[in-house]
Amino acid sequence: MSDTGNDTKNEIEKSKAPLLEHLIELRRRLIHSFIAIILLFFVSYYFATNIYDFLVQPLADILAGTGGNRRLIFTGLHEAFFTYIKVSFFAALFLAFPFIATQIWLFVAPGLYKNEKRAFLPFLVATPILFFLGGALVYYLIFPLAWKFFLGFETMGGPGSLPIQLLPKVDEYLSLVMRLIFAFGLCFELPVLMTLLGRVGMVTSKGLAEKRKYAVVSAFIAAALLTPPDVISQIGLALPVLLLYEISIVSVRLIEKKRDAIKAGEETNP
Question: How many CB atoms lie within 10 A of CB 137?
Fold first, then answer.
């Protein structure tokens, strides 16, 4: 009994060491990511006015064609200051995304075999690219269409009535813009997520294809929750997500074919 107890105790002590090392490594990667975000925050704050102008440009282009003295407003003394803080933090997170993805890779990579590292490396490259593509789609395509749609509800008024004119608050506008950019960016990571799940055997291409109708409903529900209550931005998010879902099915199918080919080769050459 004592020998069995000692063996069990030794196994527990041995398992504690790797776990502690993993936790220390995770802490180190989180600290590196946090430092990167803080440094990028100060850099972004220095260029906060330029970043603000960039984010406001889609609305400014639409308002330029309506005439009049159009502007963004703020109603609190502190609102403009915290707007620049928010813009700087948003820019820092956006720019730090590739670095954070790299830190995740550096944390996971030591536990992978050489062939597994080669297999996962494309995902590390695709993650920031897809994220930026999602942000670019909403900025250059969805914003102009959505803002033009909302401005269509303005009225000039007439005898006995008052005009309805848009006076957007700077804080509300930028919060909406940043939320949409992150929503589109994260949704564009769907192929990476599904392909990784397919690689570890948690999903199959057949299962994804059979659940396509549920994916359609889920895409429009997510679009309704993440975007403003307008048809343009909701469809603008739901349709790319559905396209990415189909790409995910193809990607998982390719992984399954490659896995089957490797298994067939091993059976042929035991």
Answer: 19
Name, in order, each residue with C-beta under 8 angstroms of 189's C-beta and a sequence gap of 6 or more.
Answer: 127, 130, 131, 134
Q: Is 135 exposed, middle or buried (0-12, 13-18, 19+ CB in 10 A)?
A: buried
Q: Whose structure tokens read 């009225």?
A: 155
For every residue of 189-241, DSSP letters joined together read THHHHHHHHHHTTS--HHHHHHTHHHHHHHHHHHHHHHS-S-HHHHHHHHHHH
Structure letter (DSSP) for residue 164: B
Residues 161-184 pLDDT 10s: 777 887 888 888 888 888 888 888
pLDDT reading at 236 higher than 70: yes
The total of other beta-carbon atoms located within 10 Å of residue 261's CB is 10
pTM of the model: 0.77
Cβ neighbours of residue 141 closer than 8 Å, sequence gap 6 or more: 236
What length is written for the chain?
Answer: 270
List, in order, residues 6 or more apart from 122 with CB less than 8 Å away.
none
